[in-house]
Amino acid sequence: MDEVMPFEGKIFVSDLQGPITTNDNAYQVTSSIVENGDRLYRVISRFEDVLANVSRKDGIKAGDTLRLILPFLKAYGATDSSLLRLSREGLKIVPGADKTMRYVQEFMSSFIVSTSYEHYVGAACDEIRFPFENAFCTRLSMDMFEVDEWEVETLRTLAQEIVRMPLVNIPPNVRHVRDLKQEDRITVKRLEEIFWNEMTDLSSYQFISQVNPVGGDEKATSVVEICKRLSVPLEDCMYVGDGITDARALQVVRRSGGLAVAFNGNQNALREAEFAITSDNTIVTSMLAEIFYRSGREGVLELVEGWGHDTLRQSGMVHDYLLRECFRLFPEAPPQVRRLNKDNLPELLERSLELRRKVRGELLF
Length: 365
Description:
Largest sheet: 7 strands, mixed
Number of domains: 2
CATH class of the largest domain: Alpha Beta
Radius of gyration: 21 Å
CATH topology of the largest domain: Rossmann fold
Structural class: alpha/beta
Number of helices: 17
Helix content: 40-55%
Mean pLDDT: 94
Strand order of the largest sheet: 3-2-1-4-5-6-7
Number of strands: 7
């Protein structure tokens, strides 16, 4: 990230996929470039889930599917220009998100922290007119080296073996690979052989060894770095996320007294956030950001207790433009914002997943 001119006061940080964009870029790119790429991505994604959340393999984290698929993308001809083109073509913005990101920049130093490849983040920044220099993301050059024809054939053969594998089923509360069904254990073992033995001598393995997706810890570290660079305490930071790679950043911001918000979040995000937004439009993100800027977390707490058009209008904390736009879009009541607790978590999770599917059309890998 290049040097930026800070605003006095507070900081706004958002994940990209979920709170701003709706499409799964890595999945779409793999589906477009690789033969049977949709299946390849799903099988590898489930494999990552096992390694990161069941066996807890050293060096593997949520988001690492983005590096594991890279040798196969290379074998099927992916280039930096093709990733950028496909990212632009497939880009879909959450309704209102372009306005939200422009609006919040007017009064808070604003940043995007994303696991996505830089090609997609750059395309999104261009579309919503957000400065790319204020984005943390997975850095990648597909053109950094060439692969020989024999390696291309080797990788394509492995890819087609992988797409014939079953999707590993991970039941709730599984603690060890041995608790999986035999068929799934066989799949995991074979994938481990492919990734940790058979592919390690290939030149394209540099993608796996050198590319570091911006996962959970990296997102949290980025938030801390942003605050340190701008000399703003974490309690003056608002973070908006929706998934497993946002959980750690949400936790850090919440525990530091900042504003941790899940936007149509999954279970991982809701467990670590303090507030849950369920909405098919980001105007409510704009409203929370302005309230936080004017009166901090305590002001948000107070208004969320009586959340509604009248309360927001009487507070004097939200610009008239936002109030009018919110009433136009949602005349009966503004999109739901709730403070999370253990009692309302199941209800809010159900509602969040409903909106998540509506807004993102999310595929469950």
